[in-house]
Write a structure and sequence with these properties.
The structure holds three protein chains of three kinds.
Chain A (H helix, E strand, L loop, with lengths): L17 E5 L3 H5 L2 E6 L2 E2 L4 E2 L3 H16 L3 E11 L2 E6 L6 H9 L4 E4 L2 E5 L5 E2 L5 E4 L1 H9 L9 E4 L2 E6 L3 H5 L6 E10 L6 E4 L2 H10 L4 H18 L1 E7 L2 H12 L4
Parallel strand pairs in A: 6-13, 13-15
Antiparallel strand pairs in A: 1-2, 2-3, 2-4, 5-6, 5-7, 5-8, 8-9, 10-12, 11-12, 14-15
Helix pairs in contact in A: 3-4, 3-8, 6-7
Chain B lengths: L14 E3 L5 E6 L2 E6 L4 E5 L1 H12 L4 H7 L10 H17 L3 E3 L4
Antiparallel strand pairs in B: 1-5, 2-3, 3-4
Helix pairs in contact in B: 2-3
Chain C lengths: L5 H7 L9 H13 L3 H10 L8 H31 L7 E4 H7 L13 E4 L5 H10 L2 E3 L4 H10 L6 E3 L5 E5 L13 H7 L1 E2 L6 E3 L2 H12 L8 H15 L5 H12 L2 H15 L5 H7 L6 H14 L12 H16 L2 H22 L12
Parallel strand pairs in C: 1-7, 2-5
Antiparallel strand pairs in C: 1-2, 3-4, 4-5, 6-7
Classes of the chains: A alpha+beta, B alpha+beta, C alpha/beta.
């Protein structure tokens, strides 16, 4: 999954020191479990070893969300096209991961599928380009939509259901250190029968949604308030209902082409 | 929320923001978001509530003064008492979330 | 001093950070984060105008910690405001303790400090009234287990912590500064008499400077878990350096300790502050504490333990014997706080309840065990 990344040399500064270690003891011999460690301290409860990689990803998300207060961190996917970023906030189940996974296989660059890192001074969003989390039905949807995408096998019975991780496209990984200027806030709304529709979204409501979906909005106080306000002003806000990824690609491409 | 007995005299209670320097407001057509720097809370207000808060931020006011300053929010034909009641309800709501205080009668 | 952890050395001499290598920065950030001292370090670096000379990657972690600490300070001020409003009908002084007291009196100790709960002190006869007013204003008791309720009310110096239903914040209401059952008997009435008003806050009070130092010392040297031990020692160091400049502070300190029954914790506080943090302490004060200091064998055992416990609880700092030392101090703190038969019962109950708690925990996955304070 991390084939396109460099390893951090021993003598460099590392943001976080994490490990996933198999638990010892008789119980764990019969039913092997592993545990996430943050800087030498166990930080989550142990899970079956089959979920180790997913646990590493969840643990890393937690590290960033709990310590990265140099950013305003919003629970949202971020993708970019020609220097302009779309922020896709939304509750689990609204289809933000699926949409994000689909679009990055059709020319959009992945910044993040879960964590939008907004730099308060520059107003730019940063990404980490880590593997994309896919859940349940999305796994097969993406497999059919992008047969060449590299994915882990499905891991059943996690707390989030069956999950699989997808490696981001090489171009996204190569550009992972480049931030992007937010241009759109698009609230995805997946429903099986929906016809594709992109409609302007209320700005005050979009403000509240971003604040609610932020992990550390409250920590930034009035700077966080001002930053979300500036973000809303700088972006077009839409609500996007869809049921089919091909429709989504078409509509997002038109958006990037500057028609809207 | 409202007092049982309606004042016979015009109510001269003066309302003001709890701490004007600690209030940040952003308004769009559909509403106003406000950040209360004291409590750290953010609220979404209706356009009228947002305008009331904007008005109070410039100067403390009674509900009659607020009505005078914000005529556009009300339809002409409504009774003046009814309009004042609406303003009063909003002021009490704003008080309950620590945005404004009532400084009593003068 | 030279054997100190990197975070300790950097806090004592911030200019040191200008010459650190990448792996040293790595270690410094990890130690600071674990000891809850990263924001304090960030604050010291800003104060000395050295932030520009910190490499970008560690700098972002320092700024992150600083933002968190700033926000906690304003949240704490608002919390105190809410508590005062809730207690408006109680005709009594509200004395803030520990972190909240440092913050509301604008002491340098509060700069870059992290905060969790608010601790207040009220006279014992007012406890019921205070508790019911807090409940009326949205605070609820947190310990519903009968054993916990009984334990707190019978033996402790506080009622069970209360949590606000809307804000999720906690308050500890104390009526004295050490458990009722503690071996050390403290004259709480004297603390009330000397408390000083916080300007601009009505009935809000904090302990007088000497009392604040003595309370901080008593608190640290009766604590069972020293996860924040180094942070608390820095608090003491900062208080001593700040108040030490007030005329009469040093003259009052030992007599007041004797009066309140806090000579021994003061002895340890001054000893480890000067040993570990090089806190300047007048030699006369040390001499005044000579009579009644612990026997040499106890003293060397305590040195062994505290010099291992008052460091960041990070594996880079563990030395031979650190686990033994922390276990010993945990048992000692219970020994100091409880009569003996009760000690056995309490440790047992705690051990037993943890095992059932763990079973529950497995149902809620995957969640961090506890957000970092």
């Amino acid at each position: 999954m991390y084939a396109g990344f460099d390893t951090c040399p021993e003598d460099a500064f590392a943001d976080f020191h994490v490990a996933v270690i198999r638990e010892s003891g008789l119980l764990n011999w019969m039913k092997p479990r592993a545990r996430f460690y943050f800087d030498g301290r166990p930080s989550f409860i142990p899970l079956p070893v089959s979920q180790s990689f997913a646990m590493l990803e969840w643990g890393l998300n937690w590290c960033v969300a709990a310590h990265g207060h140099q950013y305003l961190i919003i629970h949202a996917a971020v993708i970019e096209r020609e220097g302009r970023a779309a922020i896709l906030p939304g509750a689990p189940g609204a289809g933000k991961s699926t949409l994000c996974a689909g679009l990055i296989n059709r020319g959009w660059r992945l910044l993040s599928d879960e964590l939008a890192l907004l730099d308060l001074d520059s107003g730019l969003v940063c990404g980490m380009c880590r593997p994309v989390n896919l859940k349940n039905a999305s796994i097969d949807v993406i497999r059919r939509f992008a047969p060449h995408a590299v994915m882990t096998g499905p891991v059943p019975d996690t707390t989030k259901g069956t999950i699989a991780l997808m490696r981001p496209p090489e171009e996204s990984i190569a550009a992972r250190d480049a931030p992007a200027r937010p241009a759109w806030i698009i609230v995805p709304d997946y429903s099986p029968e929906a016809s594709p529709e992109l409609v302007p979204h209320d700005r005050a409501l979009a403000f509240m949604l971003l604040a609610e979906q932020s992990f550390n909005y409250d920590i930034h106080g009035k700077n966080g308030f001002a930053a979300v306000g500036r973000l809303i002003d700088a972006c077009h806000c839409y609500r996007f209902s869809y049921s089919n990824l091909e429709d989504a690609v078409r509509i997002f491409d038109r958006l990037a082409g500057g028609c809207e | 929320m409202l007092p049982e007995t309606k004042p016979v005299q015009p109510d001269s209670s003066r309302w003001s923001p709890l701490d004007p320097d600690n209030l940040q407001l952003r308004s769009w057509d559909s509403g106003t978001v406000v950040y209360n720097g004291l409590s750290g809370d953010t609220h979404l207000l209706s356009p009228l509530a947002g305008d009331i808060l904007h008005q109070l931020k410039t100067a403390p006011a009674t509900r009659e003064q607020l009505l005078g300053a914000l005529p556009d929010h009300f339809r002409e034909e409504k009774e003046s008492d009814e309009k004042l009641d609406i303003i009063e309800i909003i002021l009490h709501d704003l008080q309950a979330i620590d945005l404004v205080i009532c400084s009593g009668r003068h | 001093m030279s054997g100190n952890a990197l975070i300790t050395r950097a806090l004592l001499l911030p200019s040191l950070v200008t010459g650190l290598s990448a792996p040293e920065w790595d270690l410094l950030v990890r130690q600071g984060r674990r000891a809850n001292l990263l924001a304090r370090l960030a604050h010291r670096i800003v104060e000395q105008q050295l932030m520009d000379r910190v490499p970008p990657r560690p700098r972002s972690h320092l700024l992150s910690a600083l933002r968190m600490a700033d926000r906690q300070s304003s949240a704490m001020r608002w919390e105190v405001e809410c508590i005062l409003r809730a207690l408006a009908g109680v005709d009594e002084r509200v004395i803030l303790l520990k972190g909240a007291a440092y913050l509301l009196s604008d002491l340098p100790t509060a700069k870059g400090r992290t905060f969790a709960d608010v601790d207040i002190l009220v006279p014992k006869q007012r406890i019921a009234e205070v508790e019911s007013q807090l409940m009326l204003h949205g605070w609820q008791g947190t310990h519903h287990d009968d054993y916990d309720q009984h334990y707190y009310r019978q033996w402790m110096h506080e009622i069970p912590p209360m949590r606000h239903v809307k804000r999720g914040t906690s308050i500890d209401v104390h009526h004295t500064v050490l458990p009722e059952s503690a071996r050390l008997k403290i004259n709480t009435a004297l603390l009330f008499q000397s408390a000083i008003a916080v300007p601009g806050h009505g009935r809000l009070y904090v302990l007088a400077p000497v009392d604040m130092v003595l309370h901080s010392a008593t608190h640290l040297f009766h604590e069972g878990t020293l996860d924040n031990g180094l942070r608390d020692l820095f608090d003491l160091d900062c208080l001593l350096r700040h108040f030490g400049a007030i005329p009469d502070f040093w003259e009052q300190l030992v007599p007041r300790a004797a009066e309140l029954g806090m000579r021994r914790p003061l002895y340890y506080a001054l000893r480890y502050c000067s040993k570990i943090l090089n806190t300047p302490i007048p030699v006369e004060v040390i001499n005044e504490l000579e009579p009644g200091k612990p026997a040499p064998i106890i003293s060397s055992m305590m040195d062994f333990c505290y010099q291992r416990a008052l460091i960041p609880q990070h594996h880079s700092c563990s030395t031979k014997g650190s686990r033994l030392a922390t276990t010993f101090l945990y048992i000692r703190s219970h020994w100091l706080r409880m009569p003996f038969p009760l000690l056995v019962q309490h440790l047992l109950r705690k051990a037993m309840r943890n095992s059932t708690a763990r079973a529950w925990e497995t149902l809620f996955t995957p969640a961090p065990e506890k957000p970092e304070p």
